[in-house]
Amino acid sequence: MFGPSSINWCELDYVNSEFIAEYWNTLTGLFLCASSIYASIKNNGYKSLYYSNILLFFVGIGTMMFHGTLIYIWQLLDEIPMMLIVIEYYRILTNDIFLTHFVRLKIIDYYTLYYSIPFIILSYYIHPQLQVILFQGSLMLCIILLLYTCYTINTNLNKIFYTRYPFNYVDKEAYVYYKTESDVELLPNYKKHKRRRTTKRTYNLDGNNHVIDTTNSFNEFKTYSKVKKHIRYHNYQGLFLLFFSLLIWNIDNHFCQHDIELHAIWHITTSIGMYSCNEIIRSFIILNKQLVQKQ
Predict the structure, then answer these.
(1) DSSP assignment string, 194-218
(2) Per-residue pLDDT of the chain (295 residues; tens, 9 = 90+)
(3) Among 27, 143, 166, 286, which residue has the least CB neighbours within 10 Å?
(4) How would DSSP label each residue in 21-58?
(5) Burial class (CB within 10 angstroms; exposed 0-12, middle 13-18, buried 19+) of 252
(6) Phi, psi of 202 (to 5 degrees)
(7) What angle, rounded to 10 degrees, do the helices at 215-254 and 128-155 form?
(8) Which residues are within 8 A (CB) of 87 and not within 5 positions of it... i.e. 6 or more apart?
(9) Backbone dihedral angles phi then psi of residue 278, each to the nearest 5 degrees
(10) 52 and 282 Cβ atoms separated by less than 8 Å
(11) How far apart are CA 208 and CA 205, in angstroms?
């Protein structure tokens, strides 16, 4: 456990400090801790994300200890919580919330992912390079599963919303009578008046005399639209940072140079990307509460 790490990064060792092996890689671990703290503040008491935020904080501490000492036990404190975060996000989406019940989704039991962790730890004693391969392969599998789950849920959000609040959506062949205190306007469908600002909305569907107050439905739609826009923003930001981080990570590994410490930049972009991921999961939890659990 206290042997040398199975990997040594491109940054020259003990150049900027006689006490810190990789100075810039160690210093930028603070961004991961800061990302964890800021995400915790933004979570607004959602207990499902409490564990993942603690894990991200430990990743930051592990990153600083790992790059500062290049000892295997601190490498594990960097790598294992990193993998546990992704598994935890996957567990929340597939086990804690019910959005996945409304979509066709092939789910792998998250316990199966946990079983790979002891093999990753012990593989170091077979060969250090084997440990690197197993960790990176397992982490990539977890990330792919998480991205697949997020993508499937995201592309089916409208379908879930239609199912949960069917009155918000009128058939294309139908007409909706929009009624206020002073006038009655014939509109072909919902979309043409969804942005109209009124305090109360009532409808009469296709000549039926029964009038329904849909004020709450419009409020639900506004909340849904706002959260979905938030998801879209962090989807774009998260995916950009993910691919950018992977790019500079691979450049640093294969074309080692010392003009710019790319692995340190990877720490910064990853910390922002993890915040985006946290916001996406938090948004799904909010929508789950609104669309599924609310009666």
Answers:
(1) TT---S--EEEETT-S-EEE-HHHH
(2) 678 998 889 899 999 898 999 999 999 999 999 999 999 988 877 788 999 999 999 999 999 999 999 999 999 999 999 999 999 999 999 888 888 777 777 778 889 999 999 999 999 999 999 999 999 999 999 999 999 999 998 888 887 776 665 544 443 334 344 443 333 333 344 444 444 444 444 444 445 544 444 556 667 777 888 888 999 999 999 989 988 988 998 888 888 887 889 999 999 999 999 999 999 999 999 888 877 665 4
(3) 166
(4) SSHHHHHTHHHHHHHHHHHHHHTTT-GGGHHHHHHHHH
(5) buried
(6) -130, 150
(7) 150
(8) 110, 113, 114, 142
(9) -60, -40
(10) no
(11) 6
CA distance 41 to 233: 19
How many Cβ atoms from other residues are within 10 Å of residue 289's Cβ? 12
Strand order in the sheet with 176-179: 184-187, 176-179, 202-205, 211-213
Phi-psi bin for 208: left (phi > 0), alpha (psi -120 to 50), beta? beta
The answer to whether 13 and 21 have CB atoms below 8 angstroms apart is yes
In the chain, the amino acid numbered 189 is N
